[in-house]
Amino acid sequence: MKEELLYSPKISKEKELEFIRQTDPRLRVILLVRLLLLVGFILVLLVLFGCPFLWLFTSRSFSIDTKNGTFLKDGAPFRYVSGSLHYFRIPQIYWMDRLLKAKAAGLNVIQM
């Protein structure tokens, strides 16, 4: 009996609930807050785990100083320390080991 008084026979409960969901202003606020939390969470994960895309947001430069005859990396003098790796003479399973050893020896450029 009470149901008949609350709801007119022309509109079903599902349609009324659908109309309320679409027009409820709190729903937009809730969705916006959830979206902002999701974006914030993703940014925190990217920063914590060293995102490879963060280099897009940093300004890096490389130039040649012709007056002093040096390379400039991010405005500071930079010296190449190069080595060579003949990949066809080294089995593939040792490549990473050799690269890490070269880096430990102070090389910052590898010629292949």
Q: Which helices and strands, and how do they pair?
A:
Blueprint: H1 2-6, H2 13-23, H3 25-48, E1 62-65, E2 70-73, E3 76-78, E4 82-84, H4 95-104, E5 109-111
Parallel strand pairs: 4-5
Antiparallel strand pairs: 1-2, 2-3
Helix content: 40-55%
Provide the number of structural domains.
2
Class computed from helices, strands and strand pairing:
alpha+beta
**Can you summarize the main beta sheet?**
3 strands, antiparallel
Query: Element order, helices and strands?
Result: HHHEEEEHE
Strand order of the largest sheet: 1-2-3
Rg over C-alpha atoms, rounded to the nearest angstrom: 31 Å
What is the averaged pLDDT score? Answer: 80
**Which stretches are poorly predicted, pLDDT < 50 over at least 5 residues?**
none
Q: What fraction of the residues are assigned to beta strands by DSSP?
A: 15-25%
Alpha-carbon distance between the termini? 86 Å
Q: How many strand units?
A: 5
Total DSSP helices: 4
Protein name: Glycoside hydrolase 35 catalytic domain-containing protein
Organism: Dibothriocephalus latus (Fish tapeworm)
Transmembrane segments: 31-57
InterPro entries: GH, Gly_Hdrlase_35_cat, Glycoside_Hdrlase_35
